[in-house]
Specification:
GO terms for molecular function: hydrolase activity, hydrolyzing O-glycosyl compounds. Pfam families: Glyco_hydro_43. This is Non-reducing end alpha-L-arabinofuranosidase BoGH43A. One of its GO terms (biological process) is carbohydrate metabolic process. The protein is mainly beta. The longest helix has 10 residues. 30% of the residues are buried. The chain has one domain: Glycosyl hydrolase domain, family 43 (Tachylectin-2, Chain A). The radius of gyration is 19 Å and the shape is globular.
Length: 225
């Protein structure tokens, strides 16, 4: 303890300071979850295998790799995936409900600008964040999926970024109540938010994360060109 205190004074930083990056290396699109007194982060893996690393921490500073969500070909196919960003598996999100951990993500193993092949949204679940189920493929198409379980109603919602249609393709954030067992919407598919920028094909609100706290629902997003 004395040595830690002395080193802290000499370096001019508090002994409890976090060192950045908290997780070094290639770990894009981090999604964090708190469950009881533990913290978990899932990151994108794109065309690399095994897919979707899962990290654990007790203090938000020291992180340990504990698993990968995709370790079997039945979970994620990367055959034919180009070696470039935006392919493979990316934009994961973590949730905990029904006594299970849930991971939502998206993947596509080829990109066809003519056919406009869409990313497919999927859900996987685990009792312990180490053994993961095969994916359930979701009905809606889009990117940056996030499962939100409303503890007030007991319903589960899928939030994602998607276009209004396949003609003018104006992007926005959409939501539907979803069945995690089938992947199908069981409620109305509605528009949540079209962003604050000029409504055109480049103004893209994305990465929706929904929370409930003290009587209010919060929607955290990113937006830009």
């Amino acid at each position: 303890m004395l040595a830690l205190l002395v080193s802290s004074v000499l370096l001019g930083v508090p002994a409890w300071a976090a060192w950045n990056p908290i997780i070094p290396g290639f770990n894009p699109d981090p999604a964090i979850l708190r469950a009881n007194n533990d913290y978990y982060i899932a990151t994108s893996s794109f065309e690399f295998w095994p897919g979707i690393p899962i990290y654990h921490s007790k203090d938000l500073s020291n992180w340990t790799l504990i698993s990968h969500a995709a370790t079997r070909p039945s979970q994620l196919q990367l055959y034919g995936t180009p070696t470039s960003a935006g392919k493979g598996a990316w934009a994961p999100s973590l949730a905990y409900f029904h006594n299970r951990f849930w991971l939502s993500g998206m993947t596509r193993w080829t990109y066809d600008p003519v056919a406009k092949v869409w990313p497919r949204v999927f859900f996987m679940s685990s009792p312990d964040l180490r053994t993961w189920s095969d994916p359930v493929w979701a009905e809606p198409w889009g990117i940056d999926p996030d499962l939100f379980h409303d503890t007030q109603s007991g319903r589960t919602y899928l939030n994602l970024m998607a276009p209004n249609n396949n003609a003018d393709r104006l992007w926005g954030l959409y939501q539907c109540e979803v069945s995690v067992s089938s992947g199908n919407c069981v409620g109305e598919y509605v528009s949540l938010w079209n962003g604050t920028m000029e409504h055109n094909a480049t103004a893209r609100p994305e990465g929706p994360k929904m929370f409930w706290k003290e009587g209010w629902y919060y929607l955290l997003i990113a937006e830009g060109e």
